[in-house]
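Researcher: Go.
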Amino acid sequence: MTTDTAREECDQTCDISFVTEDDIPEIIDFLKTYFFKDEPMNTFLELGECKELEEYATHCITDDCSFKATNSKGEIIGVFLNGIIHKPAADAERSNSADECKHEKFKKILSLFDHIETLFNLFDLYPEYERALDGKILAVNSNYRGLGIAGKLTTRTIEYMQEHSIPLFHVMCSSKYSARVCEKLGFEEVFSLPFLDYVVNGENPLLPADPHTDIKIMTKRI
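Model: Structure:
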């Protein structure tokens, strides 16, 4: 498919709709082709097949706030997988998501996420809010990139937030490109950790290739 053909098809027939649990098998296949292998940390680790990553990516679908873009054939050409996060109770104990992960490479990624939670708390920065939408994965079929699909998925997500009075959008970006997309959509960088500064037992367990030098948290008030 040429870019011009994809653009024309996208303009005429691109449909944005809710993701359901019935979509999970197709979404996993889509992510394997267009997201998992390109994500900088996965690439560095040569992660390969990882059922834990598939579960991590799609677990949020049960929150009923994720969206897909489909073409005229009904094929998924883009997704924005989102979840709802709530302000924890003051006496809540923090758990480490890496503790129960049996996939040693993916465990390194979860350990980084756990570390970031010790450094940054979204609701400390925004104490006036009780919940937020967590944008987990935004991905587009490579044949349809540059056609505004990411923007359409984000716009529909923001509409959902407005409909349900969710005041804050949160996205963690491990890719410079995803952070740039967020910036263009009006997100603000509120946290950044250079991969070089993340050291475990005297070593850097995650050092993606340039230009992916930092992991960032981006937010947008709705």
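Model: The first helix runs from residue 3 to 13.
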